[in-house]
Amino acid sequence: MKETSISIIVPVLDEAEGLAACLSRIEPLRTAGVELIVADGGSTDDTATIAQGVADCFVTAPRGRASQMNAGARSASGDVLLFLHADTRLPANAIDCIRRAVATGAQWGRFDVRIEGRPFMLRVVAALMNLRSRLTGIATGDQAIFVCRSAFLAVKGYPDIALMEDVALTGALRKASRPACIRQRVVTSGRRWEKHGVMRTIVLMWRLRLAYWMGEDPDALALRYGYRPRTHKQEPPGELR
Fold first, then answer.
1. Which of 4, 55, 124, 133 has the fewest beta carbons closer than 10 A?
2. Is 218 part of any domain?
């Protein structure tokens, strides 16, 4: 039986400082046949130079994780697409976990997460994220979302919105099937939480999430989050190769 092929898609924007370390952690997976795609949103530092020296494919797209990840998906050759933030580390057996999940019928899934940082509350935040995701079937990008290409195409990929693109994608996927909730943990950076304060960030994220579910424009939410969205939106990802 043919082994399930996997493409890892890493969206980046001015990530030169930590990108080499990120890609070096993925390198052993490439030697095992995993495809690495870096999707850049217009970096002005050395991100492109670093990525082009390592990745199987380097693509550019209009700024925004949704736009960039859709662009990466268009260039992917894998049966399964794994979307990985540059500041998130996979567990050592991540690829085996994904292949086992897909072999048992899962169309998509995510990992549990641990947030790296000194404040104890980050452990609480991670535990609540994992529990909420398990109960609701909704995942965030920090949890390393993976999806079979057929399922990704069926929901037309990531909606090109400025914020909550991961919630929107997994909400659409959930309507077709429940996710595989892999208990092995990815490790993601707590820099955002530590920079703005853990409790303040918790309150902000819950307010933004509630506003999103109540129908507020994601562009407006992005501005409240501190991110200025693009004015021009992209089409859905179209056919993958």
1. 124
2. no
Counting DSSP H helices and E strands in the chain, the numbers are 10, 8
Say if CB 7 and CB 35 are below 8 A apart. Answer: yes
Within a 10 A sphere around the Cβ of 162, how many other Cβ atoms?
23
CA dist 236 to 8, 30, 78, 153, Å?
19, 28, 19, 9
Per-residue pLDDT of the chain (241 residues; tens, 9 = 90+): 678 999 999 999 999 998 999 999 999 998 888 999 999 999 999 999 999 989 999 999 999 999 999 999 999 999 999 999 999 999 999 999 999 999 999 999 999 999 999 889 999 999 999 999 999 999 999 999 999 999 999 999 999 998 899 999 999 999 999 999 999 999 998 887 787 788 888 888 888 888 888 888 888 877 887 777 766 555 555 555 5
Query: Residue 176 is part of a domain; what is its CATH number?
Result: 3.90.550.10
